[in-house]
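WARN  no MSA supplied for this record, continuing single-sequence
INFO  ligand: erythose-4-phosphate
INFO  echoing inputs
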Amino acid sequence: MKFFIDTGDVKEVREAAAMGLVDGITTNPSLIAKSGRKYREVVVEMCELVNGPISAEVLSTTYDEMMAEARDWHKLHKNIVVKLPLTQDGLKGVRTCTSEGIRTNVTLCFSPNQALLAAKAGASYISPFIGRLDDISETGMDLIQKIVTIYQNYDFATEVLVASVRNPTHVVDAALIGAHVCTIPYSVMQQLIKHPLTDLGLQKFVEDAKKIPK
Ligand code: E4P
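INFO  complex generated
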């Protein structure tokens, strides 16, 4: 499973990349707003740091405006994947982008049918938001299983990019299902590293190391 980092903070990208945990990056308007920086500036820096797909989301919601943004992002760097919302205009945008050789990530997916439509439109990635489904008492991971099954049934090339990841269980469940990609916040990556027995074991080794004759 590929690991993307879900962030608007280039410092987090640098840290995670130093551990070899960044195959790509996703971001969104909320994450960029949190960074307090200009969108383009952040994305350019990300492109310099990571040689992999970097999802930059359009800010508009109408087809013509989204296409103008998509072409603009595409011109900026070869690794940029344009993130479009799962709406009627968004799907039209995906189809046009596909015909123009622009890779797309369809965001805000909450149902198997939406994922089916995105694949039919030619999306490179589908982003089902599992954490937000869990938030409303649905089991987000069930959606991932359904989408993976549907895509396998018909050999769709669209990759399942598990998004809205909130905890380590989401990551291991995505890997068990066989999702192509999981986009993970830096804080969750840090949680993945930790195990109390690792800490205890290391503490013991450090103490015992002091007893070894020099
Ligand atoms: C991914 O592409 C989305 O930007 C992100 O995972 C959304 O996560 P959230 O539901 O925690 O905001």
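The beta strands are 2-6, 24-26, 54-57, 80-85, 104-109, 125-128, 159-162, 181-184.
INFO  checksum written, moving to next record
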